[in-house]
Structure formats: C-alpha cells, structure tokens
C-alpha cells in the first residue's frame, strides 16, 4: 500500500479482488449505498464478480453500465448516471466504484465530483493505461463538442484498487498502448526503472503477473510523485506531457484511428530525437529508446502524414504559452525538462525522422 500524504488516499496493488471488501470496509460501506459504474465490456467480464463480493456488505448495491468506447465519454452519459443515482436515492454519504478503463474512471470521477456537490468514489482501474497512469492524479472529465477532456474537475478518489490479473483479458493493442505511458514515466523521472523495463520486456509482453504488479506499482509511484508536487498542473506536472506534444497532433491528424499510446510512442521517439539533436542524449541512447517500443508493437514510424499539418496542430495544442511551445525533452534518460527553444525546424526534422516513406 502506498500512502499519500497530500491527496489522501490509499493505492492497493494486488493480483486478485480478495482484499477489495476489506479495503472498502475501511470506508464504512456497511452504512452506505454503493453503485458500481462500468462499461459494457468490463461489466460482462467482472461485473458479476464485484457485485457478488458486495453482497451483504453494504446498505444497498447497484450497477450502472454504459456502452464501451471513448465516444460515450460525454455529458449525456453523465446525465444518465445522475438520473440512475436519483432513482436509486443515492445521497451524499453514498459511494461510487469506477470499474473499468480510463473512460469509466474519468466519467465516474466527474459524476462523483458534481453529484450533490461531491460524493466519494473509488477507482478500480482495469486497463494498463488506467492502472499505470489515469487513475492517479485526480483528473476527471468528459469530452465535449468533439474536444477531448473539455469539461472536468480535479477530484481525488478515496481509494485506488489495482488488480493486475485483469490485464490478462485486455486485447494486445490496448495492453501495449498502456505501456507507452509506463515507458514515459521511466524516461522522464527514473532511469533505473527504464533499465528495469528494458531487462524485463519479454516477461512484460508475456503478462507475467508478478512483473506486471511491480511495473504498475513503480509506474504509479512516479506519477504520484509528480502530481503531488503539482496537483493542479502549474509546473512540474507538465513533464508528464513528454511525447504528448507531437503525439496529440498525430492523434488528431489521424482522426483518432491510432490508440493514444501509439501516438505517445511516436511523439516520444520524436522528442527523444530532438533531445539527441540538442546533444543531450547520445545517438546510442536515442536508438535504444526508439527500439524499445518495437517489442510492444508500438510504432516508431508512420506513413501518410502531412508534416506541415502536424506542425500546425502541435502549435495549436494547449501546451502553447506566450507564443512558444512548452516542449518536454530529455536532459538524460530519467530526467525530463521543459524547453521553450524548440524551433519549427527541429519539429519538422523530428517528423521526417518518424515519417515512413517507401
Ligand atoms: P477505455 O476505458 O476505453 O478502455 C479500452 C477498452 O478496453 C474498452 O473497450 C474497455 O471496455 C476495455 N476493457 C477495460 N478493461 C478491460 C479488461 N480488463 N479486459 C478486457 N477489456 C477491458 O480506454 P483506456 O485506454 O483505459 O482509457 C482512455 C481514456 O483515459 C481516454 O478517455 C483518456 O482521455 C483518459 N485518460 C485520462 C487520464 C487522467 O489523468 N484522468 C490520463 C490519461 C488518459
Ligand atoms: Zn497520455
């Protein structure tokens, strides 16, 4: 268990759901209604198991499931959940459990932040991205009018319970997509963790449970450290955007047909390339970083991009401040910095590095 001093909640790492009820008893569920919020895929895989565990342990239990997919991370789903909670007479003392990936976590957190001006919620993340990244840090919200995460709130869960065994049912693309954020955590903050990932890459690909647990735990520790220093994103937290500046631009230009992690991998390769060109990384370090994405089926080059369009999208991203891009580069492996001196030419060179032309 990691105990947070500032945003005060426990993070439990486990290979099953055995301890979940014990942990929830710490939140006095016997006197509270509990609503599990989940999506259609996760409901069919783990919904019954969680509902069975809750049997007889809380005042009342309910399950709300919405169709899986980012396209449902909307205010309309939020409204459906409010209606359901009102029907079930949920009051401010009751509790929500977010059982699912980042979409479920973001929506449930937002509902928890706003329903009756705030009720408690617990994160039970079930994707690698959600376990290693999105369930930590208190960002909640939904997409609006085609804009990602346009409406939201910073709101902390009361507990995060990670069962790494559920990662075994994730499809390969989803699993590897989450890995890109884990690599990012090593690269920006912890060179020793990066080396560990390099040494264990085949066990990770095999989804060895012990290795996954250690990986998720170490990844969360890094994210937690960064967000605790800067809970509302005024400074240090920007380092988490490593790989995301160009990554988001590619994500948009490809109309979200690539996964977020695939775009982060491409963005990370581009940012590592610029770090090499700034003489911070050696050529060997750059190539090692780039090639590490390959066993995880993450792309290191991409066909059919328009570099000028991506440059434009990069500059219109929210990381722009006073006309200069806040670019995150690597001073060395394990140490990222904010750099405002990345030129258009640097970006175009990095894009030609990742642009695959036959
Ligand atoms: P997701 O929640 O859509 O899950 C991906 C798919 O996997 C879904 O179809 C889901 O039903 C399925 N799934 C979930 N768990 C499973 C399991 N154990 N076995 C089999 N299938 C399972 O996507 P995601 O990648 O987890 O999250 C992406 C979302 O997270 C985006 O909306 C993004 O904006 C958000 N995000 C939030 C933060 C944050 O700080 N709050 C950070 C990064 C990303
Ligand atoms: Zn990300």
TrEMBL record:
Binds 1 divalent metal cation per subunit. Can use either Co(2+) or Zn(2+). Residues 178-320 form the 3-dehydroquinate synthase C-terminal domain. GO terms for molecular function: 3-dehydroquinate synthase activity; metal ion binding; nucleotide binding. Its EC number is 4.2.3.4. GO terms for biological process: amino acid biosynthetic process; aromatic amino acid family biosynthetic process; chorismate biosynthetic process. It is found in: Cytoplasm. Its main location: cytoplasm. The keyword S-adenosyl-L-methionine does not apply. InterPro entries: Dehydroquinate_synthase (IPR050071), DHQ_synth_AroB (IPR016037), DHQ_synth_fam (IPR030963), DHQS/DOIS_N (IPR030960), DHQS_C (IPR056179). Signal peptide: none annotated. Its cofactor is Zn(2+); NAD(+); Co(2+). Gene3D superfamilies: 3.40.50.1970, Dehydroquinate synthase-like - alpha domain (1.20.1090.10). NAD(+) binds at residues 102-106, 126-127, 139, 148. Residues 65-176 form the 3-dehydroquinate synthase N-terminal domain. Belongs to the sugar phosphate cyclases superfamily. Dehydroquinate synthase family. This is 3-dehydroquinate synthase.
